[in-house]
């Protein structure tokens, strides 16, 4: 019995020493969002826009962005967004890193060097398609129960900033220098709120999200859809661009929703 046990122990040790290495982290594979701004002057009214895209109302949301008065965060590709729903849905804050003027490949390489990989389910990696430009982004959303300090009608700014500080993920707040990040966040002010009315519809046989944003007397409307594959995004981008152009529904101003609020 002792001899058998000894041989078994040697066998176990042999196979253990040649155990397979841990599975490598998956490279980042972003999803795709195709989006276009609509020319509201081409429609008789907002209801006409909604009917054109066979859309049904989903949610009304107040949207705020937090940045310094000279927008130091935005200049470095950081976006801090607060959404408060008119319904009893949970409030959410979003941390987003964008890479304007950088190719998607180079942006992914930078993110990979910072330790990001495709197996991180709490982050969303996305290739945004707008204005004929591809932009890579990383975002993370945190949700909270609504409370008296963050309501659809008003917010406690100091409380909101405190929330952004407490919930900021390590990889986000340390992308550059954490001391700079925390100090800059302390200096932020709210931009907004914009009223965002969201609808679920379709265009050219593709499920589409329709959002109509109103802020300081101006309104923009955006149609968008999300798909997992580049080939799908390419096809939808081409067909939607052709269709919207031919119908006269494509806006000459393809500004982002962030810019719509923060550039005023």
TrEMBL record:
It comes from the Bacteria. Residues 32-97 form the CYTH domain. Residues 1-24 form the signal peptide. The keyword Signal applies. InterPro entries: CYTH-like_dom_sf (IPR033469), CYTH_domain (IPR023577). SUPFAM superfamilies: CYTH-like phosphatases (SSF55154). Keywords: Signal. The keyword Signal applies. It holds the Pfam family CYTH. This is CYTH domain-containing protein. It comes from Alkalicoccobacillus gibsonii.
């Amino acid at each position: 019995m002792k001899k058998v046990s000894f041989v078994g122990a040697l066998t176990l040790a042999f196979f253990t020493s040649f155990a397979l290495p841990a599975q490598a982290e998956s490279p980042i594979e972003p999803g795709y969002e195709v989006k276009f701004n609509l020319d509201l002057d081409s429609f008789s009214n907002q209801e006409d826009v909604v009917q054109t895209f066979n859309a049904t109302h989903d949610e009304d949301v107040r949207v705020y962005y937090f940045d310094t008065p000279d927008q130091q965060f935005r200049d470095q590709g950081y976006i801090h967004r607060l959404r408060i729903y008119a319904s009893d849905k949970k409030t959410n804050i979003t941390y987003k890193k964008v890479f304007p003027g950088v190719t998607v490949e180079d942006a992914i390489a930078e993110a990979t060097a910072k330790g990001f990989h495709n197996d991180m389910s709490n982050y969303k990696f996305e290739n945004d398609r707008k204005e004929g430009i591809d932009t890579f982004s990383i975002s993370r959303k945190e949700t909270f129960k609504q409370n008296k300090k963050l309501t659809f009608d008003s917010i406690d700014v100091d409380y909101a900033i405190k929330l952004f500080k407490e919930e900021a993920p390590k990889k986000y707040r340390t992308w550059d220098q954490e001391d700079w990040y925390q100090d800059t966040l302390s200096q932020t002010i709210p931009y907004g709120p914009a009223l965002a009315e969201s609808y679920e519809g379709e265009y050219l046989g593709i499920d589409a999200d329709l959002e109509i944003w109103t802020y300081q007397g101006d309104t923009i409307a955006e149609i968008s859809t999300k798909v997992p594959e580049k080939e799908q995004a390419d096809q939808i981008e081409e067909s939607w661009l052709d269709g919207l152009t031919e119908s006269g529904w494509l806006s000459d101003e393809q500004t982002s929703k962030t810019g719509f609020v923060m550039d005023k």
